[in-house]
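Field log, afternoon session.

UNIT: design team B
ACTIVITY: writing a sequence onto a fixed backbone
BACKBONE:
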């Protein structure tokens, strides 16, 4: 997922991504791609309890130029064949649950709802 430390929508999305990682601990990888300098990225990752790799894209933005995320957050799901199979930007519970369903299919795990409808958080927030 591409993110910026100043992105309030990213703040909303990361706990769900953390839950996604916890729900499916094997058979796939998640990376957070920061568009901020190292110090801001590290502080943000600590604050949001990101326990998977945080890749630094600033200041050259090489990866951002390749993927061209329209907003932060933007999530690209790369399938087993190495192709982008699903993309979402901003935050949408339906999209998080779709990603969970696809990861379950890739890994042979039981699908789980990661972003429940009535958990007190909004179902959608633009990036």
């Amino acid at each position: 997922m591409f993110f910026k430390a100043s992105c309030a929508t990213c703040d909303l999305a990361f706990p769900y991504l953390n839950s996604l990682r916890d729900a499916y601990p094997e058979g796939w990888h998640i990376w957070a791609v920061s568009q901020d300098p190292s110090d801001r990225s590290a502080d943000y990752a600590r604050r949001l309890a990101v326990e998977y790799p945080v890749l630094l894209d600033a200041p050259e933005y090489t990866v951002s130029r390749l993927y061209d995320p329209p907003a932060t957050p933007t999530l690209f799901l790369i399938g087993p064949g190495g192709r982008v199979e699903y993309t979402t930007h901003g935050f949408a519970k339906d999209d998080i649950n779709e990603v969970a369903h696809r990861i379950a299919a890739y890994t042979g795990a039981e699908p789980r709802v990661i972003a429940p409808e009535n958990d007190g958080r909004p179902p959608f927030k633009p990036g």
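LOG NOTE: The chain has one domain: 2-125.
NEXT ACTIVITY: expression trials, pending approval
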